[in-house]
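Researcher: We're reviewing a set of sequences before deciding which ones to prioritize for further study. For each one, I'd like a predicted 3D structure that I can look through quickly. This is Cobalt/nickel transport system permease protein. If possible, include the structure in token form so it fits the rest of the review sheet.
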Amino acid sequence: MSGDGLLVAVDSRVHRIPAQVKIVALFVFVLAVVSTPALVFWAFGLYAVMLVAAVVVARLPAPVVSRRLAVETPFIVFALLLPFVATGPRIDVLGLELSESGVLGAWNVLAKGTLGVVAAILLSATTGPRDLLAGLERLRLPSTLVAILSFMVRYLSVVSDDLHRMRIARESRGYVGGRAGHLKAVAGGVGALFVRSFERGERVHLAMRSRGYTGRMPLLSAQGASSTQWLEGLAISLTAVLIAVASRVVGL
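Model: Here's the predicted structure for Cobalt/nickel transport system permease protein, in token form for your review sheet.
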């Protein structure tokens, strides 16, 4: 198994689904989860089971998924603080006086946030950056926005390499970090990185213009999706929509 950015390069049925299908599936699934009432606990259990099944079918290692869930940490901290700072009726939980509305709000943030993050991890781990861009183009996203995203994907690693080289140069000159007095050096490095990135952008633009660039990027080749692939890719999302509708009709 090898990786290319966030992509986990294994062969699975989920990896073979065209990118545009997975993008629509993610959007529909997130809408279904967000529209589900927080008190309908069984619905969130079903969503979680479906996501776990999709992760297993995609052959994604559990450590990879758990590490990437760290991006949710700020939301977890916010959710844990809600029961203590929210107003309204208080309830006793393990000897702690917590806000009833805060507990419900914390559950709502944690449940829906975690499901959304796992779904996004599933998309990013099974679809390469270029395939994502081609899928967005296939979905008729404005060409200017696709061009901006493609440049961002291409030059993010270049800017990261610049930052890494600047850090090595700074440390070779005696910088050890951790002291407030060095904030000036860090701020100067950030400014220099911005100037370098801006100048590189100017050079790239001039080079593109000299090669005939007219303001439109060449179309990316995107794999078309058959009706079978659409049904397969949207199976979980359409099921989630049915669960969301049932949660509002049946309720608890």
